Amino acid sequence: MAHRGLPSNLTGGMVCFVAVLHESPWYRLERVAPGALSLLRTSTPWDSLGELGAAHEPLLAALDAQRAARLLIDLRAAPSRNDPEFEERFERYRARLTAGGAQTGLLLRTRVGALQVQRLARNDGVDLRVFHEEDTARTWLEGDAPS
User: Fold this and answer.
1) Is 142 helix (H, G, I), strand (E, B) or coil?
2) Residue 52 DSSP label
3) How far does Cα 56 stand from its chain's mean position?
């Protein structure tokens, strides 16, 4: 686990110590405050659906090792993908990402993306928050906003 005095993707430009818990071409998981985790989905696309397991198993192990009250997943850079084969293969990982007991928020780029995520969350029976503004998401993550 690396500790860096560098701005994280959700520290509002402030210098703080961020614990990098997992990093891969697809994800970066950080502890940005006690009980608060930030998961950034990078812009790296999946070369094949076979990469899903290799990308998610280590990430899920890192998430499972943490006790987080809140998890913010930043999907703004993620390549858009909603084909049926991808959704079917990704479903098991999506369910495990939100199953740890932490309140979950998603930071999204578009309203269309929010509709897709809300549809999937309804199908999964998951309660989550959707944000479009980084400042609002960061305030929620840090616990200063009502859940």
Assistant:
1) coil
2) H
3) 12
Whole-number Cα distances in Å, 93 to 11, 88, 90, 138, 139? 27, 10, 5, 24, 27
What burial class does residue 107 get, using C-beta atoms within 10 Å of its C-beta: 0-12 exposed, 13-18 middle, 19+ buried? buried
What pTM, to 2 d.p., does this model score?
Answer: 0.83
- Burial class for 47, CB neighbours closer than 10 Å (0-12, 13-18, 19+): exposed
Query: Does 111 fall in a domain?
Result: yes
pLDDT by residue (tens digit) across 50-72? 999 999 999 999 998 987 889 99
Q: Contact 117/108 with Cβ under 8 angstroms?
A: yes
What total of structural domains would you count in the chain?
1
Distance (Å, whole) CA 80 – CA 87: 12
In a domain, 45, yes or no: no
